[in-house]
Design goal:
Blueprint (H helix, E strand, L loop, with lengths): L13 E5 L3 E6 L4 E8 L5 E3 L10 H4 L6 E2 L5 E2 L3 E4 L2 E4 L8 E2 L12 E6 L2 E8 L10 E10 L3 E10 L3 E2 L3 E2 L2 E2 L13 E4 L1 E4 L13 E2 L11 E2 H8 L3 E6 L7 E7 L6 E6 L3 E6 L21 E6 L14 E2 L5 E10 L4
Antiparallel strand pairs: 1-2, 2-3, 3-4, 5-15, 6-9, 7-8, 10-11, 11-12, 12-13, 13-27, 14-26, 16-25, 17-20, 17-22, 18-19, 18-21, 21-24, 22-23, 23-27, 24-25
The structure holds beta-D-glucopyranose.
Beta-D-glucopyranose binds next to strand 24 and strand 25.
């Protein structure tokens, strides 16, 4: 007897996009990037985006891999905030805190999908009033499109019918070597941030922002992550990006020194969560059947700041009826030594 599908009656749909330099696979479950195959100078290709071997693996072992996180990516302290002086209680899924949209976040939803043309696809989701505790109906549309031959964009748009908070991102995990059985800590990283947010033991931001100058969080000049690792105690922090929120601007660059492959990340958002994974295990394998190294990959998640709904000193995450939330993310890929 075959076991029932973890997706119930709604089977996920797989879609792909191709350019001369790469091809990407997506899935309607979580509006997710499943893989990104970068063409190598010798004609072969390498998948640099972590994914599981089978779609059925995602619901149980997810880690938000490649998915759209929402309604609020990252953490909201004590899973609550205030709206017009009234407390709003959200679903708590990391101890008493709220992470990446709660127990049934957007990464676990079946999104409507459509192919727009040969270079763009779109996913749509309506989140009902009260979903995971959030006020108001939220309609979200995510469009992935190829720009030029070497860039993939993700445009996230949302509207609401009551004042609510929103913070949406894509949670791709990268290892530009394509070997997920190896740590990604040897990658070089550069981030345009003069400040970062120190956090407590629950990864909730402490009061204030700290200058990166003279700390392990100084990535203003490209540096090997491993060089800063020991002094940091691990990387799972929000960086306060320079430049103007709302403007698409390059904010980070990740390079694998061995292969020379690199990606340049641009965003219209104010913050960047840099997470060097530490939670994977060799019992899990990548779609290439690599047993996962604990630090198999790096998530670079552009977004607002964590816990903004409780922090008037942080960039606002409020969305009002009639307004449009818009977040554009761009990844520009380079295949390295020619
Ligand atoms: C968070 C990590 C969390 C991970 C789950 C990241 O965005 O910052 O703390 O473990 O998502 O994949």
């Amino acid at each position: 007897m075959t076991s029932p599908s973890p997706f119930g009656r709604q089977e996920p749909r797989i879609l792909d996009l191709k350019s001369d330099r790469f091809r990407a696979e997506f899935c309607s479950y979580g509006a997710r990037l499943l893989a990104l195959y970068l063409h190598n100078p010798d004609g072969s290709e390498t998948n640099i985006a972590l994914g599981f071997p089978r779609l059925e693996d995602y619901p149980a072992k997810d880690s938000y891999i490649g998915a759209i996180c929402g309604r609020y990516a990252n953490r909201i302290c004590q899973a609550r905030f205030e709206l017009d002086g009234r407390p709003i209680a959200l679903s708590a899924n990391e101890g008493t805190n709220h992470l990446h949209g709660g127990v049934e976040g957007f990464d676990r939803r079946h999104w409507e999908s459509a192919v727009l043309d040969s270079r763009s696809i779109t996913f749509s989701l309506t989140s009902a009033d009260g979903d995971q505790g959030y006020p108001g109906t939220l309609k979200t549309q995510v469009t992935y499109r190829i720009v030029d031959e070497d860039r993939l964009q993700c445009l996230i748009i949302a509207t609401c019918d009551r004042p609510t908070v929103v913070n949406l991102t894509n949670h791709a995990y990268w290892n530009l070597s394509g070997d997920f059985s190896q740590s990604a800590a040897g990658h070089l990283l550069q981030i345009d941030a003069d400040e970062y947010l120190p956090v407590n033991d629950q990864l909730i931001p402490l009061p204030g922002r700290s200058p990166v100058d003279g700390t392990a969080y100084d990535f203003r000049q490209e540096v090997s992550i491993s060089e800063h690792l020991a002094d940091s105690g691990g990387f799972d922090h929000n960086f306060c990006l320079t430049g103007e929120r709302g403007q698409l601007r390059p904010v980070a660059r990740l390079t694998d020194p061995e292969s020379g492959r690199s990606l340049r990340l641009s965003t219209t958002e104010a913050g960047l969560q840099f997470y060097l994974a530490r939670h994977f295990s060799p019992e899990l394998s990548s779609r290439e059947a690599h047993p996962l190294h604990p630090a198999a990959a790096i998530a670079l998640e552009p977004q607002s700041y964590p816990d903004s709904p409780n922090r008037p000193d942080f960039p606002s995450s409020w969305l009002l009826p009639g307004d449009v939330y818009e977040h554009l993310i761009e990844w520009q890929f380079s295949s390295g030594h020619d």
